[in-house]
Amino acid sequence: MGLTVGGTIGLGMGLGAPGLWWGLTLGLATAAVGLSARFARRTRPAVFTSG
Question: What are the residues whose beta carbons fall under 8 Å from the beta carbon of 16, sequence distance 6 or more?
């Protein structure tokens, strides 16, 4: 994802190397949010109901 966004920003929009770095930053931020959400879901305590 970071390479695609970086290529779009850096090359497609004409921002050059800073655009590639921004793409990398956005890709890493997206991965961090996704992994944090997955971790939160997998470590959620189980809810037990009696019955």
Answer: 10
